[in-house]
Write a structure and sequence with these properties.
Largest interface: A-B, 27 and 23 residues
Strand content of chain A: over 45%
Order of helices and strands of chain A: EEEEEEEEEEE
Strand content of chain B: over 45%
Shape of chain B: globular
Largest sheet of chain B: 7 strands, mixed
Number of helices of chain B: 0
Structural class of chain B: mainly beta
Number of strands of chain A: 11
Helix content of chain A: under 10%
Number of helices of chain A: 0
Low-confidence stretches of chain A: none
Helix content of chain B: under 10%
Oligomer: heterodimer
Radius of gyration of chain B: 13 Å
Order of helices and strands of chain B: EEEEEEEEEEE
């Protein structure tokens, strides 16, 4: 079966760095996604990793280790607006349907 | 291309009533997906279309649910005889890029009372 695990909640301070972890078990591997979702809004795409290593996009970076079934999202210089849910997701199986399996999301609260 | 649009944004209905939601994807994108999201959970796959063909349906989609995508453009999701357990956010997404990246609509929040 397929499973994605991530912590339910995290709290961090404005200006700090936070790392949100995600472990996954998938049959086949076609990449790992991170989405941001503010309360009451739709998820928005943050990153997609298909190769091992760290990919940086401004204040946000995403890391992948395929051998360990592990990814993390790194948020630097936290701002209050970064308070949101962060969803880890992986394509389902090895078929090319584009269907994604999502984790339950990690609710990040940024405090002043 | 102004993004994926969903209508209505909110719907409150009485148990047993039928409801229909609409999704207008970004033009020229072939794949369209419906997901359901309940509070504190990630989105769960319901069904998807490749152009007008409905290619996969989740076991979550009971026979009270039906989705269509006539002419491969907009899509509708209908729920018949709604139940309180149907209360959720219904998200539509399309997939434009080879990296599987989704563009989600703003969602329709359904409350069954």
């Amino acid at each position: 079966g397929q499973n994605i695990d991530q912590p339910t909640e995290m709290t961090a301070t404005e200006g700090a760095i936070v790392q949100i972890n995600c472990t996954y078990q998938t049959s086949g591997f076609n990449g790992l996604f991170w989405y941001q979702q503010h309360a009451g809004e739709a998820p928005t795409f943050l990153s997609y990793n298909v190769l091992d290593g760290l990919e940086e996009k401004g204040r946000f970076s995403s890391f992948l280790s395929r051998s360990k079934g592990y990814s993390y999202l790194l948020l630097k210089e936290l701002q209050m607006k970064d308070s949101a849910s962060y969803l880890c997701a992986a394509p389902h199986g090895s078929s090319n349907t584009g269907k994604l399996i999502f984790g339950q999301g990690t609710t990040l609260q940024v405090k002043p | 291309d102004t993004g994926v649009s969903q209508d209505p944004r909110h719907k409150i209905t009485k148990r047993g009533q039928n409801v229909t939601f609409r999704c207008d994807p970004i033009s020229e994108h072939n794949r369209l997906y419906w997901y359901r999201q309940t509070l504190g959970q990630g989105p769960e796959f319901l069904t998807y279309f490749q152009n007008e063909a409905q290619l996969e349906k989740s076991r979550l989609l009971s026979d009270r649910f039906s989705a269509e995508r006539p002419k491969g453009s907009f899509s509708t999701l209908e729920i018949q005889r709604t139940e309180q357990g149907d209360s959720a956010m219904y998200l539509c997404a399309d997939q434009g890029g080879a990296d599987y990246g989704y563009t989600f609509g703003s969602g329709t929040r359904l409350t069954v009372v």
